[in-house]
Amino acid sequence: MSTAMQVAHGGLAEAAKSQQLEALRQIATQSTPKGEIRERVGRGGMRLKYTDGPYVIRTLNQAFGWDWDFVADNEELLLNDGKPFEVKVRGTLTVRLNGQAVTKTQFGCQPIEMLKNGTAPVSIGDAYKGAATDAMKKCASLLGIALDLYDSDYKAEKYAEEPAAAREEQLRQYGPPPEPVRNVKLEGAQPTSPGEELLALNRKLGYSEPQLLKWLIGKFNVNANLTLHSAIGSLGDGELSQAIDIFRQKVENGGK
Questions:
Q1: 44 secondary structure, DSSP code
Q2: Would you say 132 and 56 are in contact if contact means Cβ atoms under 8 Å apart?
Q3: What letters, b where the CB count within 10 A reaches 16 and e where it falls short, cover 84-108?
Q4: Which of 96, 145, 198, 215 is spaced 20 to 30 A from 247 at the CA atom?
């Protein structure tokens, strides 16, 4: 190899290393570049921050040198009154760095867009692709990629006290919250996903699964025909983070 080629090769290697260090720094500090942040309207008209799939893929490539894999499986078509309205998939992300492998698993969902006349879906295939991307982003967030967006959208203190009118309306529609059983200890394996953590916190507070489902329906307007696990899977990233924050605070306050 000529001297010029060696210099060029060395320069490319240093640039790749610099990109990797920057990507790892962004993950470690949970700092998503402002230019990669998007906004969308969520349930209830709330504006939510998010980032798109290509940014997550670029960050994974830069941080782990393309040495990562993502698999989407366990596809499920969710129906409402016999009509398809959402798809759900399970995603598994494996990253490798310095000979060490880390695997994260999450579920992703995507609403199905219907034709204007409502007779059929526009494309269920596109909905599955969207669900796979959602699952990949959720898996990556467990590594810290774009996690700051979820933290900035939902803070425990932001939801510690609901407006009086909202509390009264929720009491009118769904009744008072159940009295939690104190000093309930978690048993078995520790939760490995946000959904499992919410269920574990629910058990720690002494609530039943039907009570949790009723709360999710009232709080996030999820479909009342879903099972509890499907209802949790239908929540957006920020909504699930909000639910966990609320339940964590209840645990810290002794169930209050």
A1: G
A2: no
A3: bbbbbbbbbbbbeeeeeeeebbbbb
A4: 145
**Which single residue is written with the structure tokens 């002794």?**
254
Q: Which residue in this structure is represented by tokens 């996903």?
A: 193
pTM above 0.90, yes or no: no
Q: For residue 15, how many C-alpha atoms fall within 13 Å in the half-sphere facing its CB? A: 6
Give the whole-angstrom CA distance, residue 95 versus residue 242.
27
Residue whose entry in the numeric block shows the structure tokens 């909000």 = 242
Say if CB 159 and CB 242 are below 8 A apart: yes
Spell out the domains of the chain, with CATH numbers in brackets.
Answer: 14-153 (3.30.390.80), 156-252 (no CATH)
Q: 109 pairs with which residues across the strands?
A: 88
Token pair listed for 143: 């590594």
Give pLDDT < 70 ranges for the chain: 1-17, 26, 42-45, 151-192, 237, 255-256
